[in-house]
């Protein structure tokens, strides 16, 4: 089959690799083989692509996909051949203490696409034609019947960006009447706006300088756009909210600058919900946080735990997070997909094998 | 009148100072003069006493007191002469946006005992015979009638340590059924145990090596004592809680070691509630926090906002946080009070003018 392999900085290739098979490892009976219907490129894939995160040796890449089940192991009971399934950006069993606590990204038996799972078995990357899915009954969620093709982009966002934006909002404590600022206008930030809206935020400020992204932000529920950054951005936010800042700030980037922007835009006693992968380790100014009682919550989003809540709204059309995709390419053109995102010609690219 | 002045490392003196008067400053009409009935020494006072925090010039000290109102300014309407009052460890108006948000420590017009208030007027320290109280209607809470003398210690804890322990528990998200670990067995840590108990925690681990403090911890509701620290302490906590750690961890010390202990004792998706004044700025390991979704909430405790909730339980005897005082001295012996706490001969010392 064809799958994407990253070789190093700005070197992503589509290659012929072995077809996945149901493994004979410890949890072999729990595997499924899924034929990928749609995958995509994540902002976090760009860390390797740009050489910020080192690529020691060529490796499979991609962690967001939806598809159709082609085979299941003997221990799989919930997921059936033929099911249309959503896979979160990681593997989880949904039965361990962490999964039951709602934190399936910390699954005691989980793993990551394109890396060894905790049994030492290799797991495929998602940017390919097929993927072996360990712990299929936990990892995968089947839709009721085959979804309308128009829903493919929105269903795909449940694999990562919509669930991650939702996690930012939940972590920031967004509830009915909250005032919200969203730092970052990538796919996750935009989904954070949509999540804040459905959680009942009364006012949502999108910090964005790109008119195309501003348009989606407004469509998703943003009430205000702020283009300023740094001190000027903080000043604008404080002016808008009683001189003190917003209740909840969603940090959806992962740089030191964006975390600083988020913390300083939060009112005393408010909360930063952060989901941007910390790149270079932003510094948390503990004495400022202590003095202002600004909380910092969040992390790698347990999107699997959110699929049941969000899926019905995607299926009914109540939310349409798939709007974050502004380019669609065949899988064979994956290198162009990376380049388009790297050069900011696209916000998020959907790939079809 | 007599009041306490700190001159430098291990040099605390009781001195004759000017009697406070209702000021003629901007908010003069809002002042009250309170005769101190009881004050005490705080763990955070020891940072100056030990020379960890520099004392640039002699200054008044102490920030916890209860007393009787002797005079009020023309704008004071709620507080009356003769009222028995509790003062939080800071000044606040309880009308600004931050106070109304429950974060009175960030009052836009507040200030600190022993320092200039935001009008530039000097505010007395609490370890003295009398204190001028700015924003008296906001800062002070009067008890219904004169309290029984036996309640003095517990009422005094509402000025700081009980409210601060409560803030740690609230910040950590303690609720019915939570599993809780408390790092720090000083007065605040012990009050954190009591707070966690009344908020419905199912299990409360006190990390303590001192038998006298362990006894109070058990009396306040601790279900388990752990004497180990560092890696061994983390290991013990994980063993006790499904191998993953506790839901809520209260950090009540403020050192790098204690924060590390707290973070590593928290389960994925759990929360550290911290109230220990960060001494030297503990490092928050953002990548570990991100990976495990451990949140960090808390800060300088807005105890004024908690007095209405906690006071009825103190008055009824439902809670008895005053047990944290294990030494009582006349104000004239304030130097001995500091020495006893510094040398760990006492957990917390109550002073009577």
Structural account:
The structure is a homodimer of 353-residue chains. Chain A has 353 residues and is of the alpha/beta class. Chain A has two domains: 2-160 and 302-352, Alpha-Beta Complex (Quinone Oxidoreductase, Chain A, domain 1); 162-298, Rossmann fold (3-Layer(aba) Sandwich). Helix content of chain A is 29%, strand content 24%. The first copy, chain A, is built from twelve helices and 18 strands. Chain A has helices at 45-49, 97-100, 136-139, 152-157, 161-171, 187-198, 211-220, 230-240, 256-264, 286-292, 304-316, 334-342; strands at 2-8, 11-16, 32-40, 59-60, 65-72, 84-87, 90-91, 111-112, 130-133, 141-142, 179-183, 203-207, 224-226, 246-251, 266-274, 295-298, 327-330, 349-352. In chain A, strands 3, 5, 6, 9, 10, 17 and 18 form a seven-stranded mixed beta sheet that branches. Chain A has a six-stranded parallel beta sheet with strand order 13-12-11-14-15-16, with helices on both faces. A three-stranded antiparallel beta sheet of chain A has the order 2-1-4, with helices on one face. In chain A, a hairpin with a 2-residue loop joins strand 1 (2-8) and strand 2. In chain A, helix 5 packs across helix 6 (187-198), helix 6 runs parallel beside helix 7 and helix 8 (230-240) runs parallel beside helix 9. The longest helix of chain A has 13 residues, at 304-316. The first copy, chain A, is globular and about 60 Å long. The first copy, chain A, starts with a strand and ends with a strand. At the A-B interface, strand 15, helix 10 and strand 16 of A face strand 15, helix 10 and strand 16 of B.
């Amino acid at each position: 089959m064809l799958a994407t392999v990253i070789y190093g900085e700005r070197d992503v290739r589509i290659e012929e690799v072995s077809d996945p098979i149901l493994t004979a490892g410890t949890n072999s009976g729990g595997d499924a083989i899924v034929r990928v219907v749609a995958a995509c490129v994540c902002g976090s894939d760009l860390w390797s692509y740009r050489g910020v995160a080192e690529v020691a040796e060529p490796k499979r890449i991609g962690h967001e996909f939806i598809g159709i089940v082609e085979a299941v192991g003997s221990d799989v009971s919930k997921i059936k051949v033929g099911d249309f399934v959503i896979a979160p950006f990681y593997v989880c069993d949904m039965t361990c203490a962490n999964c039951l606590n709602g934190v399936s990204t910390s699954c005691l038996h989980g793993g990551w696409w394109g890396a060894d799972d905790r049994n030492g078995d290799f797991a495929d990357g998602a940017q390919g034609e097929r993927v072996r899915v360990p712990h299929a009954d936990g990892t995968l969620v089947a839709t009721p019947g085959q979804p309308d093709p128009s829903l493919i982009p929105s269903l795909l966002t449940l694999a990562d960006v919509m669930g991650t934006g939702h996690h930012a909002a939940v972590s920031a404590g967004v509830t009915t009447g909250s005032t919200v600022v969203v730092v970052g206008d990538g796919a996750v930030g935009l989904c954070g706006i949509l999540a804040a809206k459905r959680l009942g935020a009364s006012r949502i400020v999108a910090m964005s300088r790109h008119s195309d992204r501003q348009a989606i932000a407004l469509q998703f529920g943003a009430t205000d756009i702020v283009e300023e950054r740094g001190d000027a951005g903080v000043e604008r936010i404080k002016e808008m909210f009683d001189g003190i800042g917003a209740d909840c700030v969603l940090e959806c980037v992962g740089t030191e600058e964006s975390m600083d922007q988020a913390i300083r835009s939060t009112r005393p006693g408010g909360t930063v919900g952060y989901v941007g992968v910390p790149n270079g380790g932003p510094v948390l100014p503990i004495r400022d946080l202590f003095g202002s009682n600004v909380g910092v919550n969040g992390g790698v989003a347990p999107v699997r735990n959110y699929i049941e809540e969000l899926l019905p709204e995607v299926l009914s059309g109540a939310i349409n997070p798939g709007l974050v995709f502004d380019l669609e390419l065949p899988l064979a053109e994956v290198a162009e997909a990376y380049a388009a995102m790297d050069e900011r010609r696209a916000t998020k690219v959907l790939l079809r094998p």
